[in-house]
Amino acid sequence: MTVVLEAKNLTKKYGDVIAVDNVSLVVERGALFGLLGPNGSGKTTMIKMLTGQTRPTTGSATVLGIDVTKDPVGVRGQVGIIPEQETPPSFLTAMEYLEFVAAVRKIPDIETKADWWFDFLDFADKKNVLCKDLSRGTRQKLMFTQAFIHEPALALIDEPLINFDPIMQDLVKDYLAGYVKTGKTIFISTHILEVAEEICSGFAILHKGILLHTGPVAELSSRNEHLPSFFLSLVRKDRHV
Amino acid sequence: MFELFTNMVKEEWRVHSTMFGSLSFALFPVMIFGIAFMGSFLLPLMRTTLPAGNLTLIVHANYLMLGIMVGGFGLLGNEVMNRRFGQASLLAYSARSLPLSEKFIFSNFVIKDTVYYFFLWVLPFGFGYILASPFTGVPLAGALLLLLTLTFSFLFGLCGVFFLSAVYARSRPVLWLVLLAIGVGVGGFAAITGMNPVLFFPPLLLNSAFTWANFLISCAVLALLFGVAIVLFNPESVGSEKMYKDSFAPLMRRFSSLPNPPLSAKDTLDLYRSGSLVGQTIFSFLLPLVVIWFFLSLLGPFFPPHGLLFIVAVTTGVIASTMYTWVTMFDTFGPYACLPVAVSTLIASKLTTFAVLQTIPTIFIAAVALLSGEAAYLVPAVVLGISVSFYAVSVMAWLCGLSPNVLVYDVKVLFVYLILVGIVLTIFTSVAFANPYFALSAVILAIPTWLLVWKAKVRWDAVDPEGF
User: Fold this and answer.
1) pTM score
2) Which of A28, A48, B132, B361 could bridge across to B320 with cysteines, CB 3.0–4.6 Å?
3) Closest chain B residue to A150, measured at CA
4) Half-sphere exposure at residue A52, Cβ-oriented, CA atoms within 13 angstroms
């Protein structure tokens, strides 16, 4: 199998705080990989390092064969990213934001592609509304669209379903599952374990910046074990340690 | 409800101090104090060329302008509230979750800004002057009076802009009418009496002769401006949706000859749709400059022939350089973090938009040259002003990257900025005073400007694009 993402001994320190501690990970092509962990476990920092938004203190990572430290802009050019909290620019409309993304990413035929996404995620009535006036859910739809509109070989998503209603969550889960079937890869971070168990093929558990476990979800199924209970037992054990 | 105010002050302090460390920020007022304290010892020297009354006038003009700029920057209607606080959940937005009215919170916000910036800017200056008074022979009562009148000057700027911005948020036509009425009133007074209206600026009147009547007049005007602004304050209704037809693609095509057309098109739409292009031009550019022009015109006899024009040009250049803050205040790097855009690319695009905005100071300097009957020196004055503006912005970009609004309060940054810009201002003002056409030599500033922009790109690409 082809490796699309590889982290080697990644560490990120903010002053005395170690956000991510010596984490090594491998994600193969076609995987829907879930990075799991409680709040503050270092998931967002991991995604930021893997997409060149922040530099690792030590260690290295390659994404689609590109060194994230040496060429962070190159990495962001190849992948799709949905950051956890970022919102689209305030004073562009939803359609204009997608045109902006298309211009920066040099995506052709943006109108047709944008219209497909407006219909698919059911927010065509908001295409001319200023981004600052959109609801959180609609902003999340727009951010989802910008991450996938260029059909990247790898998408990294921080909490993919957090602002969606149940109907939209279902639609997006189906989309993500279908997307990896085309040979593309998705890396998500979440603390919603049921979702991870439902859609992920592989997972890693991060707690206090330390990687506690990584492996395929099928491994748990074969042991007749569920991801939530496995996660909780591992994290609780780590807390006691 | 005093808790809201105290917590807002704490919040403002923490916003600033977390950006560049408590010590660097705490040293900022110390530096202002130091400048005032040491500057006081230069007073006898200054008085050999400028009468004391005119020095007082300059200092008051500076604090009035400071108030205008703080007010214009922070309180430009509803959009600025959104823009300034963005998605961050600050206390100014606590009406969403606490049983507090928007007007109450807004009043606290304004009082907080007044008190906060008083301690940051006004008190350190006044205190430095007061502490130096035993050594400089200035009576203590005079030094205390200066602190009071500087405070009033600052508050006149702050409340004046706050009042105008509240009117602006309600109705732009009414704002234009108010400005027109003020212009006609002030201009009419000057034309009829032949006196400079600046001499009747209440804090200056109070400084020249303290009377309780003058004191009460100042207080009453401030209270009126503040009160009317609070009454007029109109928080944007939650859930309103502004819709626009697609302007991005046509604008991008129009900017195709510029570097990074999509980024410049976005900046332009940000400026236009937020109301900043008009609002900032009035409150953060034209208003301070017109006030400065009025004040400087009183000093005309102390400048060499044509000196006033070049002083105005240089001052315009420095203030025009702050237009960089107009285009950097809309977003952090965050929204670009999911795109293949480097910090250096963003700096370049913001500077491109800044360059386009330089048409405003160009027109202003040209208008001053024409109106003051010095059309012969229009070109040297424009070249000087715009060269200074580009040089000052390159210093700002090098020192602050994409966060000039925040990092300016870092004492180290401000100190280096003042030194680098101050040296250039002194040299080229002297050159222009020697011969107006020598001002054309300011084009040489293109070299350090280019170098500083290049250094800015390298510097800010090398640090994490996170944060503010």
Assistant:
1) 0.75
2) B361
3) B339
4) 29
What confidence tens digit (pLDDT) does each residue in B43-53 have? 776 666 666 66
Q: Which of A48, A72, A100 sits opposite B262 (nearest CB)?
A: A100
The answer to whether position B242 is within a domain reads: no
**Same domain, residue pair B311 and B418:** yes
Average pLDDT, chain A: 92
Residues of A in contact with B18 (CB under 8 A): none
Tokens of B296: 């400087």
Q: Which of B183, B204, B237 is the last residue of a domain?
A: B237
pLDDT: which is higher, B77 or B167: B167
Domain stop point among B202, B237, B272: B237
Sheet strands side by side (includes A32-36): A80-82, A154-158, A185-190, A32-36, A202-207, A210-216
Closest chain A C-alpha to B394 CA, distance in angstroms: 24
Task: List pLDDT tens digits, range B411-428.
Answer: 788 889 999 999 999 999
Half-sphere exposure of B128 (CA within 13 A, CB side): 21
The answer to whether residue A11 neighbours chain B at the CB level (below 8 Å) is no
Q: Is residue B281 part of a domain?
A: yes
- Whether ipTM tops 0.90, in short, is no
Instruction: Tell me whether residues B331 and A147 touch, CB distance under 8 A.
Output: no
For residues B205 and B299, state if they share a domain. no
**Which among B274, B338, B457 is the top mutation candidate for probing chain A, defined by the most A β-carbons within 10 Å of its own β-carbon?**
B338
Q: Which residues in chain B have Cβ-Cβ distances shorter than 8 Å to A90?
A: 82-83, 86, 270, 274, 330-331
Kindly state whether residues B76 and B163 are assigned to the same domain.
yes
